[in-house]
From TrEMBL:
Residue span of region Disordered: 81-100
PANTHER family: GLUTAMYL-TRNA(GLN) AMIDOTRANSFERASE SUBUNIT C, MITOCHONDRIAL (PTHR15004)
UniProt entry tagged with the keyword Kinase: no
Name under which the protein is recorded: Aspartyl/glutamyl-tRNA(Asn/Gln) amidotransferase subunit C
Biological processes per GO annotation: glutaminyl-tRNAGln biosynthesis via transamidation; regulation of translational fidelity; translation
Catalytic activity: L-glutamyl-tRNA(Gln) + L-glutamine + ATP + H2O = L-glutaminyl-tRNA(Gln) + L-glutamate + ADP + phosphate + H(+); L-aspartyl-tRNA(Asn) + L-glutamine + ATP + H2O = L-asparaginyl-tRNA(Asn) + L-glutamate + ADP + phosphate + 2 H(+)
Gene assigned in the entry: gatC
Taxonomy, superkingdom: Bacteria
Assembly behavior: Heterotrimer of A, B and C subunits.
Gene3D superfamilies: Glu-tRNAGln amidotransferase C subunit, N-terminal domain
Role, per record: Allows the formation of correctly charged Asn-tRNA(Asn) or Gln-tRNA(Gln) through the transamidation of misacylated Asp-tRNA(Asn) or Glu-tRNA(Gln) in organisms which lack either or both of asparaginyl-tRNA or glutaminyl-tRNA synthetases. The reaction takes place in the presence of glutamine and ATP through an activated phospho-Asp-tRNA(Asn) or phospho-Glu-tRNA(Gln).
Amino acid sequence: MSEISRDEVKHLATLARLALTDAELDEFAGQIDGIIDNVSAVRSVDADGVVPMSHPHSIETTMRPDVVGHMLTPDQALDQAPAQAQQRFKVPRILNEGNE
């Protein structure tokens, strides 16, 4: 067991700006110990020969070449816009803050 101290939990709570009671400090110390123990158990697994994966399914994705293609001009992109300003789409304000 990793035995994280109550003072370490209190320090972490202070860094996170959390106000914890004494009971919560004790409870979270035990929970964090459990998390650390579980991570340590996973680290001890023999993973030699296991290929790292970024996705749980073995899928092959094809990537297209990253080449510059035909792009719309600002005028072409905005020609069907109901409203525009300064070469941008103009939309109704949804928050009561900032400028139009």
